[in-house]
From TrEMBL, chain A:
Coiled coil: none annotated. The lineage of its organism: Bacteria, Pseudomonadati, Pseudomonadota, Alphaproteobacteria, Sneathiellales. This is Peptidoglycan synthase FtsI. Residues 1-26 are annotated as: Disordered. The keyword Thylakoid does not apply. Keywords: Carboxypeptidase, Glycosyltransferase, Hydrolase, Membrane, Protease, Transferase, Transmembrane, Transmembrane helix. Its EC number is 2.4.1.129. Pfam families: PBP_dimer (PF03717), Transpeptidase (PF00905). GO terms for biological process: cell wall organization. The keyword Protease applies. GO terms for cellular component: plasma membrane.
Automatic annotation (TrEMBL), chain B:
Residues 95-122 are annotated as: Disordered. This is Cell division protein FtsL. It comes from Oceanibacterium hippocampi.
Length: 598, 140
């Protein structure tokens, strides 16, 4: 049929005669002399033609395919290189952040809470040959696991039992050294709080599965556990200030055998909380080891009658509304009878008292009369404006609403004027006093560090002039009045004492006091506020058995200020210098308008 | 034609070999990447643990205890802080002790000395109290 070679069928020489289809006159065949032309006839020729056509079609098809691939390649590498690289980067096995819960820091970047890798130990009892020996070994490594329990677990017929969650690295090493094939480790994560008790109430804690169930951990549970490891939280707390405050409170609790204490340090110009302590506290690494009531955050979840501290608000309100001036006063010579109550003074002077004296000697009678002159409605409105009638906004789940009096009539207006009948949290009190001294602007308290550049959303509650008068009055209390023990010389401290009998089951308990002191410094231009409160302090020899705020709570504040002021960069000033004396001087007038002699 | 075939054959063999090499090279690189990533993850774990440990060892409470036990340092008192321009020039014609009488000038305390570590219910308690009284100006 078809034969190649110089056979008789073939004729040498280039084909002179054009074949019927001109395109095909080229020789087609491998290894042939290109000058040879096949010339086939008949059926063979037709078959060959068909074959050629098929090969050409297939060739064209392949050529098209390869061209497409080539174009695509060029396109991918040259034109869309960026996309491809991104795609490759996305698919790669790059090291991702491994932690499933982000860290919490203080304002200076000190670590307060973090997740670390940990291992949990489980066993497959079916693979264990000598359960008794193994139980003994495990009990030696982890003495908190009972030997009997381990033996029973390891000799059971199950396939999976947890031995212990979250082993320490040492325990893991020891268990590994046993070389027991029936024991396995499950990699897990564990939340740790390196600062322990120091920040327990603010930071809160998580459960065994790392869900936040208290404090900041709970409030920011969502953002801490985002998809790519979550967003870290930076608190407004300053660890050093927190420690100084806690150290002083601890000391006061042991000195005065108090059942508890709480304290707050706040930046009055930004509302940031620099320290917040509640005693007794707990170890967030093992919160279940402490008694339940240690979990209670007295600073935000506890509401108390603050006592005389409220006179700050009463006087600021009366001064701001122009009801009284610094030179006016009230007759405090006789107790007031209202309903079944008798309002009398603890440090009774039994005479006419000017406004500064009412504050300095903490006269209930004077404050009550002032509140009546202001009027019930205006008093209520003012208390609302400084945030004492609503639940405050703070980044903690443990924030209590104040306890309001069932009705607000003359009696209540009088008692609230000196801090009875309205229970508020220490945090609310601190925020309100901050507004009294910072120039009169109410700022929302926050536990999250503020960007100093971002604008503050404050609300004016008293005028600048009134705020200046309140500063003078608070300074007077430390200089001459009940707060002398809060004086940290050089830091121009001003403040106010507050002692209240504890209300238990609706009755006042005479022998149980809540003593507090609230202060700001430096008083010529207040920057920081310090609040300290003791629950049921007992007097001791050093206080001549007094247990009122001036003896028990004021010293805490004085010592705390002396410790934190250098940390916070507050420059000490000469308290006797004319500038400071002029800025804080109070002229105390007698009833007749003459300067009183001091 | 023959040249083309030889060329194509060489290309095919070369490409095959290249591909083979490339494939193993990539596999090798991927192994390396995996092990590097594993190393990074391990290092990150270790860093995290070390950060926690650093934070734990820097607890203010612990530092305070160590400082009172081993150092002669004392908390800073208000009288020890001053602005630089309030410092006077060195008095060249005066007795050193006269410095005390210059008003408003910070004076050094007595040379700090280690207080006896006896007394108190825990180590360093006495020293801590002394340092403390000096700093807070509290008299008992």
């Amino acid at each position: 049929m078809v034969s190649l070679g110089r056979s008789p069928d073939l004729q040498a020489g280039s084909a002179m005669a054009l074949p019927p289809r001109g395109r095909k006159r080229r020789g087609f065949g491998f290894g042939l002399d290109p000058n040879l032309t096949l010339r086939l006839e008949g059926g063979a020729k037709a078959t060959l033609e068909q074959g050629r056509n098929r090969v050409v079609v297939a060739g064209v098809l392949f050529a098209v395919c390869f061209s497409v691939i080539a174009i695509r390649l060029v396109g991918l590498t040259l034109m869309q290189g960026e996309d491809v690289r991104n795609y490759a980067a996305m698919r790669s096995v790059a090291a991702e952040p491994t932690r499933s819960r982000a860290a919490i820091y203080d304002r200076n970047g000190k670590l307060l809470a973090a997740n670390i890798a940990s291992w949990s130990l489980y066993a497959n009892p079916r693979k264990i040959d000598a359960p008794k020996t193994l139980a003994r070994s495990l009990n030696r490594i982890m003495p908190e696991l009972s030997l009997a329990g381990l033996e029973a677990d390891l000799s059971s017929d199950r396939k999976f039992i947890w031995i212990k969650r979250h082993l320490t690295p040492r325990q893991r090493f020891e268990v590994n050294r046993l070389g027991e094939p029936g024991l396995e480790f499950e990699p897990e994560e564990r939340r740790v709080y390196p600062q322990g008790r120091l920040v327990s109430h603010v930071v809160g804690f998580t459960d065994v599965d790392n869900h936040g169930i208290a404090g900041i951990e709970r409030t920011f549970d969502g953002s801490l556990t985002g998809e790519r490891g979550g967003e870290p939280v930076t608190l407004s707390l300053d660890l050093r200030v927190q420690h100084a405050l806690r150290d002083e409170l601890l000391r006061a609790v042991s000195d005065f055998q108090a059942v508890g204490a709480t304290g707050v340090v706040m930046d009055v110009l930004s509302g940031e909380v620099l320290a917040m302590v509640s005693l007794p506290d707990f170890d967030p690494n093992k919160p279940q080891d402490d008694p339940k009531d240690a979990l209670f955050n007295r600073a935000t979840a506890g509401v108390y009658e603050m006592g005389s501290t409220f006179k700050t608000f009463t006087i600021a309100m009366a001064l701001d509304l122009g009801v009284v001036g610094m030179e006016n006063g009230y007759d405090a010579s006789k107790p007031i009878r209202v309903g079944r109550f008798r309002i009398r003074d603890f440090h009774a002077k039994n005479r006419w008292l000017s406004v500064p004296e009412i504050y300095m000697y903490s006269s209930n009678i004077g404050a009550a009369k002032m509140a009546i002159d202001v009027g019930i409605d205006r008093q209520q409105a003012f208390m609302g404006a400084i945030g004492l009638l609503d639940r405050p906004a703070l980044e903690l789940p443990e924030v209590a609403a104040p306890i309001l009096p069932p009705r607000w009539k003359t009696t209540e207006a009088m008692t609230i004027s000196f801090g009875h009948g309205l229970s508020v949290s220490p945090l609310q009190t601190a925020s309100a006093v901050a507004a009294m001294v910072n120039g009169g602007v109410m700022l929302p308290a926050t536990l999250i560090r503020r960007d100093p550049a971002s604008p503050l959303s404050g609300r004016r509650v008293i005028s600048q002039r009134t705020s200046e008068k309140v500063r003078r009055l608070m300074r007077l209390v430390v200089d001459e009045g009940t707060g002398g023990k809060a004086a940290a010389v050089g830091y121009v401290v001003g403040g106010k004492t507050g002692s209240a009998e504890k209300a238990v089951n609706g009755r006042y308990k005479r022998d149980a006091l809540l003593t507090s002191f609230i202060a700001a410094f430096p008083m010529n231009s207040p920057r920081y506020l310090v609040f300290a409160m003791l629950d049921e302090p007992q007097g001791n020899k050093s206080t001549h058995n007094y247990r009122t705020a001036g003896w028990t709570a004021a010293p805490i504040v004085g010592r705390t200020v002396a410790r934190i002021a250098p940390i916070l960069g507050v420059e000490p000033a000469d308290e006797e210098s004319p500038e400071i004396r002029n800025a804080l001087l109070v002229k105390i007038k007698t009833r007749e308008g003459r300067d009183a002699a001091f | 034609m023959r040249g083309l075939v030889v060329f194509a054959t060489v290309v095919v063999v070369g490409a095959a070999y290249g591909l083979y090499e490339l494939k193993y090279e990539v596999e090798h690189l991927e192994d390396r990447l995996r092990s590097l990533n594993g190393g990074i993850a391990d290092s990150r774990d270790a860093i995290e643990v070390l950060r926690v440990e650093w934070s734990y060892l820097n607890r203010p409470e612990y530092l305070q205890e160590l400082a009172t036990q081993y150092l002669d340092y004392q908390p800073i008192a208000a009288t020890q802080v001053a602005e630089i321009d309030r410092l006077p020039f060195r008095p060249f014609d005066r007795d050193e002790n006269e410095l005390d009488s210059i008003d408003g000038v910070p004076v050094p305390r007595d040379k700090p000395s280690r207080a006896p570590l006896i007394g108190g219910d825990q180590p360093g308690a006495a020293a801590r109290m002394v340092a403390y009284h000096l700093a807070t100006g509290e008299r008992r």
